[in-house]
Task: structure prediction
Amino acid sequence: MYDFISGKVVARNPAFVVLENEGIGYLIQISLNTFSALAENSHAKLYIHMAIREDAHVLYGFFDQAERSLFQLLITVSGVGANTARLILSSLSTSETLDAIANGKVHVLQSVKGIGGKTAQRIVVDLKDKVAKSGISSEKVEPLYNTIKTEALSGLLILGFNKNAADKVLDKLLQQNADLSVEKLIKEALKLL
Result:
């Protein structure tokens, strides 16, 4: 229904962004990679996937078409819903995910919180040929980072993690390396939660 939405960034955090276009604010769920690519831009263009469920119409936005195409492939796999696909694309870059699928690196997919061995194998088996045929390629985007613990915590809470556990993990990670970006902080936290 929608290919992309372009507009002024009204609000942003690691899990969603609000884009205003012609007086309408669109709440768009995003991956951590898209959040990083948006950086501090005041205007953005996101490629959209609209999921229509019984209880909601949800917009998922992606900084580039390659990430959206990969998301759409991931949700075709049995046992992988939109939130799981978004979690995969938050934990791994588009190129890392494509490489893991194309080369059968099940252990890379299993490193994502909530992805077990069977699901990781199913993703590889179901998508290996589709990824090769789709021609999806990822471009490296050098994002700007805003390193704030509260943004990382907010992103983890929106992804459904317990506040106390997430807070402890973030504190531990920041003690080890205080120079982590929001993206790296959340990625490392996802591995530990």
